[in-house]
Amino acid sequence: MIAREGTRLKATAPRTGDMSAHLTLRASAGSLEAMPPEMPMIGLGDILAAREVIAGRVHRTPTAKTGYLGDRAGVRLLLKLELFQRTGSFKPRGVLNRLHHLKPDERRKGVITLSAGNHAQALAWGASQAGISSTVVMPAKAPRAKIDAARGYGAQVVLTDGDLLATCQAIQKERDLVLVHPFDDPWIIAGQGTVGMEIIEEAPNPDAVIIGVGGGGLISGIAVAVKGVRPLASVFGVEPEGACAMTRSLERGEPVRLDRVETIADGLAAPFAGRLTLAHVRAFVDGMVTVTDRQIVEAMGLILERCKVVAEPAAAATVAALLSGKLDRLRGATVVCVLSGGNVDRERLRTLL
To answer: φ, ψ for residue 122 (rounded to 5)?
Structure first.
């Protein structure tokens, strides 16, 4: 049961998905496989518990109304400005919650992850804060600003032109490190769900929330939070046409790995959906839409011009979906678009815009 305390929500009953009794992650044992089928889905109580873990360590980001973009889409539009979060994206929420639950021997071993950038930065920052060594495996073609930031936050960065997963697996096994999965981890999902709690408290009656989807950790957490408090609100996910692993996975009924990923939205370029995130999306998300890179760039420009904030392509995808006409069913509704990050360097901005 959830009760209101001012504008802040609190748990008044046991957590619905008490993960502490279940979690022996395959990742910690040295495997990068998706979460096992028996892994429990998270509940609202897990998100509220995560919020207590990360309280005072991350920013409570603002939710701002935008009249111009809302008028263009025919909705009352609010933007959840997670691009003002520490390290420039929502990722520290999940990372801090996951690191909090590491065992003492796991902390001594150190952690590893694979990431195109935002999760890498968040893990580097969070691990440094906790005195834990971190290694991040990134694509050699990842944005230079994200590579430099991960190094600056204290991680050992391994760049590869090959398969990120295979490279990460090899290093993890060789060094006996603990994986902090970018998305397919219940503690990560619960941490990301704190974004949804803030949305509900700042925009108490949204008709719909739109979220970008890479591996699916963010939308999984937000959807649990939103549906847990506002069951009638709709939750929609957005993917680039060139990186639609979640959409394909929903069609197949099982996690799908894409043979090719091609999009400017590196933050949404996960080549596969997780078993756990797919289960959450199937249970709590009302629909998925895809957008083109051109639509994403157009949305980036409009957000910059009209809202005076710099959204990276992955963040702008939510506004692109709203402006694309694929969500015309929302006309007249109160809609929240999550701007998930703002990590884009000047050279890339110049090229894109």
So the answer is: -65, -45
Pick from 33-37, 102-106, 282-286, 343-347: least confident: 33-37
Q: What is the pLDDT of residues 75-99, one digit of tens each?
A: 999 999 999 999 999 999 999 999 9
On whether the CB atoms of residues 118 and 88 are closer than 8 A, the answer is yes
How confident is the model at residue 39, as a pLDDT? Answer: 62
CA distances for 124 relative to 95, 105, 150, 177, 252, angstroms: 9, 19, 6, 14, 35
Q: How far is CA 256 from the centre of its chain?
A: 19
CA gap 237, 117 in Å, rounded: 21
- Active-site positions? 91, 340
State residue 204 phi and psi, 5-degree precision. Answer: -60, -20
Structure pTM? Answer: 0.89
Question: Can you tell me the distance from the alpha carbon of 222 to that of 105, in angstroms, rounded to the nearest whole number?
Answer: 31
- For residue 197, the one-letter residue type is M
For residues 158 and 165, is the Cβ–Cβ distance under 8 A? Answer: no
Nearest to 202 by CA among 52, 336, 53, 68: 336
Tell which CATH classification among 3.40.50.300, 1.10.1410.10, 2.30.40.10, 3.40.50.1100 matches the domain 44-90+187-352. Answer: 3.40.50.1100
Would you say how long the chain is, in residues? Answer: 353
Task: Please give the pLDDT value at position 116.
Answer: 85
* DSSP secondary structure letters along 129-150: HHT--EEEEEETTS-HHHHHHH
pLDDT score recorded for residue 40: 77
On the question of pLDDT at 181 being above 60, the answer is yes
